[in-house]
Amino acid sequence: MRSGSPSPRAVGQPNQVQEPYSRARKNPFFDGLLRAEDGTPSLPFDLQASLGSRNISRTMSDIGNTHTRNAHDSLTDIGNNPFLQPFERSKIDKTASFAFTDVQSLFSFDPNELIEANEKPPTVNGLTSPTSAKSFRVNRRKENLSTVSLPQSAASFYNGDSPEFEIVASCPSINKLNSFLKATKDEVNAGVPGRFLHVVMAQDVPDVGSIASTITYAFYLSEARKGDQICTVPVINMKRLDIRSQAELKWLLDSCQIDQSSLIFVDEIDLSYYDLFGSLKVVLLNGNKLPAKQEAMKQAVVEIFNCKEGESVYPWVKTVTIAEDSSCCTLVAEKFALISPEILAGQGFSRLLLAAILLDSANLCSPQCSLKDNYMATLLIHGAGRFGCNGLYQLLRYKMYDVSDLKVADILRKDFKKWTRVGKPDSAGSRMMASQIGMSSIGVPIAQLLDHEDTSVREIKYFQHMEKIRLLMIVSGYYDSKKNFKREILVSAESVELMKNLLFFFNASASQLPLKAIHQPGLGEEMQAFEIDKVTSRKTIERLLEEFGGTSKG
Asked: Closest by alpha carbon to 209, among 418, 405, 400?
């Protein structure tokens, strides 16, 4: 370029003088740290009084350039900032050090008090917005999660893995769900007069996926198929007492703020009564047929939701939804996304669906996990909260195997099944012998189960008596300190003769079930513990017990 040519700036702006650039933020929301007269930062609350003798160290980004700070001394006038007038300024030493592990102790509120705040709906031109009001409260956390190996996150960095307090926000979606649950239970208590009872029920498997899909799909049907002729009711296909042994399920329902008193369990409603009078309609989830003990109500089935492709279903059922290798709650979430997506925005509601999807798909890593599972898990990620998807999954898995807060009976009931087998005739040949056999699966060593309570042996016998079983087999599967899988069994028989017959049967089946006796004091002759010398599945043990039940005379 020639020396006589005008510069590009001079062409467009011949006489303009450039104003000095200032980075001062005009929005008072950004005036968090103010500067006192000596250049030290001032906080919008009395942090110095809360810190006491603690020291605070500041990062290089906090220290900054001293000359740059002096250019913004005008921001130190608190009186001109309406957002900071209620607070006091406090000066903090520049050479202090800060411990992030004790952040919560900086707050000066009484932890025993319940702090609540209400977020009112916004108003536009004097009219209230249709947005639901939301409330917040600060609770002391009831449990310690520090033993759970949660993934690292910003929340755990500042608050620790198990913060002492938690802020709980109300969820409009859950509020609506709880209202639905309460209304349906009131209707059932009144006998559902003049209406069909439209029951949504899953298989008799007490897992998170079955319970979550039962609740949410019944809620979906009530929203999508409104009518005066039917009363849609979710019925949990387990006894209410059994929920005490499902720590992960109980934690999830509490965390999602679901009113458990409004839930209806299968032992709280007589479905055969409604079936007898022809007013029962059943929507079956996660299977093609009703459980054997409920097979008598099969004519009432009108819809099957989430059954596998190729499975034979009742021929009179016209509405059938195929699973497509997806979690049942994935299909439910998809239906909500089509008719009422705002319901999925609630953290409690999305957490209920997300937890079921993560457990059904092994944290989205199972070979059966579909693209739709991944998509819906991403859509519902708000439900994971501060844990994140991985953290929520790890927490639920930890709860599944944590038995520290359970009684012995609850541990045995957690994964329990029983069956009846008719054996050979008695000595007189006049009647057949019915053998009641039960099997309980646990995830801890037999020795740990017996040490769980001072009266563990007595509690096991009491559980056997309450379940009315002649033979109880407790199957233990766990990993030892060397990461080797171990399988142990504890056998409790009704009589010494029955125990002898079982041991004789096991000796004859030694190739399938090689046993090594475990000495445990205080068991008696009717209870014995064994270690299985080879890796054996529970299905194999169950099959052998069924064979013994069909041949036993004891």
From this structure: 400
